[in-house]
Amino acid sequence: MKELLTPLKIMENMVDKLQQSYPKHEKKAEGIIQFHLKHNNENIDCYIQSDFERLTFRKGIANNPTVTVKSTFYNWLNLAGGRLNPVVGVMLRKLRFNGKTSFFDVLPKKSFTEDLNIPKDPASKFEKNPSKYWIKPKKVVVLSSSPRGENGYTDFYLNSFIKGMEKDSEVELVHLKKYIIKPCTGCFSCWMIHPGECIYHKTDDFNALAEKLFTADLIVYAFPIYADGMPGILKNYFDRSVSRAYPYMIDGIYKVRHPRRYKHENQSMVIFSICGFFEMKNFEPVHYYFKALSHNRHIPVIAEIYRTTAVGMYGNPFAYKQLNEIIDGLEKAGDEIVNHGKIKQKTYKIIHQKFYRSKRDLNQINEWWNEKKGSKDINY
Ligand SMILES: Cc1cc2nc3c(=O)[nH]c(=O)nc-3n(C[C@H](O)[C@H](O)[C@H](O)COP(=O)(O)O)c2cc1C
Question: Residues 3-49: pLDDT tens digits?
Fold first, then answer.
């Protein structure tokens, strides 16, 4: 189990880090910086000894230090991290120095990351405004992620959307349940040992699936809501595809993100989800999940199709008219997506129309569950 590092260990780590830059540092000198730091009513005495070769961290009190610092441990960390100006620190009595303060120049101040060759991957015009720079997708891949595959309601609703897209684009429907995607173990081998390669790359189907998805112009992620999120098989795919990014962190559009190892400019995604409950609120968790995922993957979400009451409407005589409108609306949405990179508000209104439930509807659903008790009908 990991334990909180002690202030002495933090000081030692800090000196190790400074030592990495010391050989190239111009202001090397011989001497000692003595620290008398207070933390949680404890005195921490330690010092940094420097010569022309290296900086060495030592515990205790040195003879004839060149300069001495007295402060709390946190004030010293703020000074070292550039969060506390030394003059202000002295004036506010947060820091006390004795001796030759110019000797602090012996500590390299240059950022350790300046020389790193971080891949640049700035946001493209397309990512910021996909419908403005829309190009009709040549290849659409629909990842149907219901663990029930083609027998589920996800595919029932999805089929109309695909029909609409197929009029003007090549669409491939892929069922995630047919692929074995092992869960990520968090070992970071894909970043530290074999960059871009997961430990499972040779023993499961991740690579084959990723190849399809990473080369598509448009990806449709279709899935039912499971426990207020997405089914685990889809989350496993997303976790594993972290291997396709660099570990580095760069500034993104609204937050920090990773540069991509594999780039497909002008790639976009559609979220297509269905659920059993009645309210659009049930899609809020996945809406926010995909907002973050799309930013981190540099792939804009161009449409979000959410169908509530997906099971309850099917076969329900009182919802039959609505269901037909929705099915037609989904086909229209598919056509709009490939041709314009967005769905018209009018079409959204049709596919997202509310199923007004009465008390009777809840009773009917509950009756259905009672009837199904003991049933082995997995294709309900
Ligand atoms: C394990 C499980 C968890 C579910 N969790 C939710 C949920 O949190 N909210 C919801 O509205 N529906 C939930 N549902 C209902 C499914 O979204 C709904 O049955 C959907 O039609 C399943 O898709 P499929 O027919 O393609 O398998 C859940 C279903 C299962 C099997």
Answer: 999 999 999 999 999 999 999 999 999 999 999 999 999 999 999 99
Do 96 and 239 fall into the same domain? no
Residues 227 and 91 in one domain: no
- Amino acid at the residue 281: K
Does a structural domain hold residue 268? yes
231 lines ligand 1 (CB under 6 A): no
Question: What is the domain range of residue 16?
Answer: 7-106
Q: What Å distances lie between residue 38 and 12, 32, 64, 87, CA to CA?
A: 16, 19, 21, 20
Candidate from 226, 289, 307, 368 with most ligand 1 atoms within 8 A of CB, to mutate:
226
CB 169 within 8 A of CB 141: no
Residues 134 and 279 reside in one and the same domain: yes
**Dihedral over Cα of 246, 247, 250, 251: its sign:** positive
Convert the pLDDT of each residue in 166-218 to its tens digit.
999 999 999 999 999 999 999 999 999 999 999 999 999 999 999 999 999 99
pTM of the model: 0.92
Distance separating alpha carbons of residues 224 and 155, to the nearest angstrom: 10
Containing H/E element for 133? none
> First CA to last CA across the chain, in angstroms?
46
Q: Is 276 in the pocket of ligand 1 (CB under 6 A)?
A: yes
Separation of CA 225 and ligand 1 centre (Å): 5
For residue 48, the domain's CATH number is: 3.30.1050.10
**DSSP H helical segments within the chain, as ranges?**
7-21, 73-80, 86-91, 125-128, 153-166, 189-192, 206-214, 232-240, 284-297, 310-313, 320-340, 345-351, 359-372
- 4 alpha-carbon distance from chain centroid: 26
User: Do both 139 and 36 map to the same domain?
Assistant: no
Tell me whether residue 193 is exposed, middle or buried, using C-beta atoms within 10 angstroms of its C-beta: 0 to 12, 13 to 18, 19 or more. exposed
**Residue 269: beta bridge partners?**
219, 301
- The encoded tokens of residue 201 equal 């790359």
